[in-house]
Write a structure and sequence with these properties.
Elements lengths: L1 E3 L5 E6 L9 E9 L5 E14 L10 E14 L8 E6 L6 E8 L1 H4 L3 E10 L2 H29 L9 H17 L3 H6 L3 H28 L9 H32 L5 H4 L3 H29 L4 H27 L9 H21 L8 H60 L1
Antiparallel strand pairs: 1-8, 2-7, 3-6, 3-8, 4-5, 4-7
Helix pairs in contact: 2-3, 2-10, 3-5, 3-10, 5-6, 5-8, 6-8, 9-10
């Protein structure tokens, strides 16, 4: 909406017919400049946000939600639009009608500003239903794939899982949390715990993805017995945990402040917010350099392991595409902008769901020993072992019996020969 400059410098915008399916209300402002030079100045915005339901609208009964003054740094290029600033971000629509009253300090703006542009954003109800439908489609696919994956590999035992299979089994559970089957509660409830849970689930999934890429790429260089917690996982866990911690703090801090103050703007109202972003960026840059270094080392050493070359190349190509898309998603603004259109939302969730689901199918074993087959094979082996032992015992008993009979026959022959010799000697004496 365009508002012409007036002497009283007071403006207002009214939005009607909203409900929880519209998800949030986002109002921002920017100016247009007439000057032929660049301008940078401080502008005071006096804001008041009121709301009412349809049954109170004929009575002109409005409830004041917030009223405050915010100072923003406005920069304008010569004869162009000025920087955009957030006026209102209302994450929970408890009312059906909203009105924003705006006053701008004329002392700092009258000289170079001609028009004020106030933009109102909210999610269309059809988009919300679209998002809800595909969330549950992804949840069902996730459950089916995870169940089938576990069914195929459970006969081998978790300790016998391959390195990639252990990671994918854990990531499928995190993917279920990322798809968030409890997302409708976020629409219906304005509780701070729900906001915290949503932020935690989202950030913990990205932590799992980052750890999966780093550990799997670097893990190809080590034998299974060398991948110990102290020497292999702990050095990777420390920077990843710090990266997740800063990412989570920034995410939840912004969400909670926007919930408590609809006129809150993250970059201006958090002391040291830019410092937090710089620290997180440096840690993330260190992570990217580590991944690149691990890839180079693996490409050099994988030539000596031809059995793992195909597995690594498959993983590397799929993960590289997903990694690039992830960078584009994060740089494009995951929290707010990706929920504005159905295409952006669908692209975001298709990236991670298709990546993990397809990779889990690729890691399925060629055949799975069922429990019945395993017990039968064990019983047959046990039976064969018992039969061989019995045969050996029978053979040993037969040899012992034969030896005993042979010794007995020798004793009898000796006795008979002695008896014969005695009888011969007695007959000679008689003669």
């Amino acid at each position: 909406m365009v508002f012409n400059w007036r002497d009283d410098t007071e403006y207002y915008a009214t939005v009607h017919d909203l409900n929880r399916l519209n998800e949030f209300l986002y109002i921002d402002v920017h100016f247009s400049s007439l000057l032929s030079v660049d301008v940078k100045t401080e502008v005071d915005f006096i804001l008041k946000l009121t709301a009412t339901n349809d049954y109170d609208l004929p009575k002109n009964k409005w409830t004041e939600l917030s009223s405050s003054t915010h100072t923003r740094t406005v920069t304008c290029e010569k004869k162009s639009n000025c920087s955009r600033h957030t006026l209102v971000y209302e994450p929970y629509l408890n009312y059906q009608n909203y009105r924003l009253d705006l006053q701008v300090d004329p002392k700092t703006t009258r000289e170079f500003i001609t028009n004020i542009y106030i933009d109102v954003f909210f999610v269309r109800r059809g988009m919300t239903m679209f998002e809800l439908f595909f969330r549950y489609v992804f949840v069902m696919l996730n459950i089916i794939c995870f169940t089938y994956f576990v069914k195929r590999v459970r006969g081998y035992g978790f300790r016998t899982f391959d390195f990639e299979q252990k990671w994918v089994a854990c990531l499928l559970l995190l993917l279920l949390l990322f798809n968030n089957p409890l997302w409708p509660i976020l629409l219906l409830s304005s509780s701070g715990f729900v906001v915290f849970l949503d932020a935690f689930v989202t950030t913990i999934f990205f932590l799992g993805i980052w750890g999966f890429w780093l550990c799997l790429i670097d893990g190809y260089r080590y034998r299974p017995e060398e991948r110990t917690i102290k020497k292999f996982y702990l050095p990777k866990f420390i920077p990843l945990f710090l990266l997740w911690l800063f990412f989570f703090i920034i995410y939840i801090w912004g969400q909670m402040h926007e919930k408590n103050d609809s006129q809150y703007e993250t970059t201006n109202d958090i002391p040291g917010f830019i410092t937090l972003e710089i620290i997180m960026f440096l840690i993330f840059l260190f992570y990217i350099l580590w991944v690149i270094y691990a890839c180079i080392r693996v490409f050099i050493e994988i030539k000596e392991k031809p059995d793992q070359k195909k597995r690594f190349y498959t993983f590397f190509i799929i993960s590289a595409i997903t990694f690039i898309l992830t960078i584009l998603v994060v740089s494009g603004g995951f929290v707010n902008s990706l929920r504005n259109t159905s295409l952006e939302f669908l692209a975001t969730y298709v990236i991670y769901n298709s990546y993990l689901l397809s990779y889990s199918v690729a890691l399925l074993p060629a055949s799975k020993p069922t429990d019945k087959f395993s017990h039968t094979e064990l019983d047959e082996d046990t039976t064969d072992l018992e039969e061989s032992i019995n045969k050996e015992s029978e053979n040993s008993d037969g040899v012992a019996l034969h030896t005993h009979n042979y010794m007995k026959s020798e004793e009898e022959s000796e006795k008979s020969s002695e008896k014969y010799s005695n009888s011969s000697s007695s007959s000679n004496e008689t003669d």
